[in-house]
Structures are given as C-alpha cells and as structure tokens.
Amino acid sequence: MKDGMGKVAVGAAVIGAAAVVAVAALVVRQRMKSSGRWVRAMDIVKEFEEKCGTPEVKLKQVAGAMTVEMHAGLASEGESKLKMLISYVDNLPNGDEAGVFYALDLGGTNFRVLRVHLKGKDEGIAHQEFTEASIPPALMCGSSEALFDYIVEKLASFVAEEEQMFQQPPGRQRELGFTFSFPVMQNSINSGNLIRWTKGFSIDDTVGQDVVAELTKALNRKGVDMRVAALVNDTIGTLAGGRHTNKDVAVAVILGTGTNAAYVERAQAIPKWHGPLPKSGEMVINMEWGNFRSSHLPLSEYDIALDAESLNPSEQIFEKLISGMYLGEILRRVLLRMAEEAAFFGDEVPPRLKIPFVLRTPEMSAMHQDKSSDLKVVGNKLRDLLEISNTSLKTRKVVVELCNIIATRGARLAAAGILGVLKKMGRDTPRQGGEKTVVAMDGGLYEHYTEYRKCLENTLNELLGEETASSIVVEHSNDGSGIGAALLAASHSLYLEELSS
User: Fold this and answer.
1) Which CATH topology does 84-246+277-282+478-500 take?
2) What pTM, to 2 d.p., does this model score?
3) For 173-211, what is each residue's pLDDT tens digit?
4) Residue 473's beta-bridge partner residues?
5) Of 49, 82, 273, 303, which is the most buried if we count CB atoms within 10 A?
C-alpha cells in the first residue's frame, strides 16, 4: 500500500509540475504574443508619424507652391487648383455703416441667422443677436428647394420675434447678407453660381445655379419680405468683419468644418480682371484654398484611402489634411488598422470603430487636451463613442500621441498656407515704420482646439522669423463671417443715402 501511495503521490507531483510548466509556457506565449502585438502597433504609429512629418524645409516648399498656384489662379480660369475667385468686394467696411441688417451664415453642418444694429462712426455695432440650427443629414443630399425652405423657415421665425425697435421704416425692405461657404463663381456682389458642394453636401440640382436666386425663391415661397444685398463666403465675411474694427486686417482664414482663405489683392495684379478698376484699387480674392494640392504635402495611406472613398475624390486635398471634418476620421482609420493588425484593443476589432466618421474632431480635441494623470477623458471617449472599455493607461497614451501627430501636421500645414499668402502679398519680409498685417481667423477648429491653434501660431512665427513675425498679427475674429455679411449688406444697401443721412 505504501509503495502504491508513493507512486500516486509522485505521479500527482509530476502532473502538477507539468501543469505549472504548461501554465507558465502559456503565460510566456501570451506575453510574447502581446509583446509582438505591441511592437506591431508601435510600428504602425512610427510609420504614420514619419509620413506626417512637417520639417521647416517641407513647410517652406508648401508655402512656395501655394504662392505659385495663387499667381496661376489669378492669371486665368482653370490654370490652378486654386480658383482665386473675384469677390466683387472692393469697398470693405470702414465703420461708417448704419442701420439694421440681417445675415444668413451657411458654413457647413450648422447655420446661423443674425441681426446687427449698426450706428455708424464712433459707435459701431450697437446691438447684435443670433440663433443657430443644424442641417438635418437628409437635407445635405436632398433637393435645393427642401434645403433652402428649411433655412428660410428658421430665418422667418427669427425675424418674427424681432423687437419693435428693430422694425424697418415703412416702405423699406429688410436686407440680408448671405454667407455661403461653398465654391461659387461670383457674377456680382449679390449673385453667383455654385461650382460644387463640399463639406459632405451633395445636392446636384444646385450645381451651376445662382444661389441667390435659389434663396430668393425660397424667401418668396415662405412670404419673407427680404432682399439679398450681398453674397459672400465665410472667409470674406470674416475679412469684412475684421476690417470694420481694424484697418490692418488684410487676410482672413477659416478653420472649421472646412477651410478657406481670402485676402486683399491689388486690382492691377489680377490679369483675368476685365472690368473697370475699382476706386479703391483693391479687390478681395476668395482663394478656395481647400482645393490646393502639391507634391510637397505629406500624405499617408490613410489620407489617400479617405480621399478615394469621399464624395469628392481628388478634390479638396488640403482641406482633407487640415480641417475639422476630417481630422477625427483620420484618427479612426489609424486606430482601426491597429485594431485589425495588432489587436490594439483586444482580440476582437470593436465594431463601432468600423463606422466612418464615428469619431469626430471635437472628441479628438478633447482626448488630445486631456490633462488628467490617468487620461480619464480618453478612456471615457473610447468607451462612450466606440464601446471600448477597460483600456490601459499605455493604450490611452498612444491614442493621445496619434491625436498630436494628426493635429500637428494639420496646424503646421495651415501655417505654411498662410505664409504662402503673405509671400504673394509681399508681406513675408520685415516691414518698415511699424506697419502691421492682421490675419483674421475664425472657425470652430481654430477657436476650440487649443493645441491646434497654439501649434499653428508657433509654426507661423517659426517660418517667418522673429523680425518679420513682429509685424504679423494673428487675431481671432469671433463670429466674423456672419457679422461681416451683415456689414457688406449695409455697404451695398439700396438705401445708402437715407442711412447715411
């Protein structure tokens, strides 16, 4: 019996030892597998970072290419990816404007209706108010009639609520500045044909049509007595709004859902300008710089795939690298590849990570700017948006690193674009006599994404050099696009003589 029990004990010990060895081997294999996955994940991050590199020499090449394209676009139609559209704005606000004017600001997925009470020199804007609404997704790809009717309904509600003090005098029609932030071939200050939709809109029946005529039809259908006095895009509105209070504003840049730039050009420097030269000698140019592209732009495989799958392949390449509509989507695409090839979030690929545009730039901004020691905001966003729970601190740090790579590239390229505009204007060298050039900035991306904004401003200073940078002022023009449209409606009013008296 004793020998039997001893054999059993020895057998059990051997089996136990074998089990321990097996478990240990499994743990080692799992660690090696996990280590291998992590190495692959880090390789993906490193490859992406290298593709997104923006050293100073590359940024100066981008700026130079921007300047060349500006010259080509001014020379004649179709010679450049930059439209360089003549805005017919040659009399920017100067502070003398007076009266009550409206603005309708359609800049992307949201739009605003504003009322601005102007009191002329020394008093400026006496009162302003606005309301905001979102465009339902169905209307972004429906009919023009449905879209404009929806917008005018919101405008009509806003007008109906106006106080007694803002009612128009008898016989005077209300006047509106229409900020329409899509590429338009302008025919006059208050007419222009849509070239194409951007920012996720796809409404084919308006392409080539006069957008003021479409809005006027909707105003008539809804019984709103209002004249469209000025058609501008948000960038020109921002430039006009900035100039109203600061005569040194000469450039405007929008960084929001989409992106664009406008600047003041000498009329003599526009070969395709065939009309009489404006009295001011200047003309505002709408660049439509979102469509800029160059071999110097740092494109990754994720950008190429995003472009190919977009509503407008091969168009708006610059916009797809730097604007708010796309930054979060680039992040999602990188994370998806890491989940698929390196099991970054575990053995299963999170289903929601496969949904295009599920990760928006505001969420990316919140994660990038998470200052908590455990990156709690990152963990919460991954859980709430993508249903990814129990992420490690190491994983969250990688997510923040990716946010930084994407935002840094976007901000530095935007700064290079601004340098290109300044070069075209001859403002990229030190100015004599303390002369300043003010760049008016607006858009949700610039306003709310602090890390992006700081990087842009620091990069511009880096590119300009200390002496020149001291003469360039980057200034946030809050709500400039809407107020600017109202100001341009005022400066192109039918009742200018009455108002000035």
Assistant:
1) Nucleotidyltransferase; domain 5 (3.30.420)
2) 0.84
3) 999 999 998 888 888 899 999 998 887 888 888 889 999
4) 438
5) 82
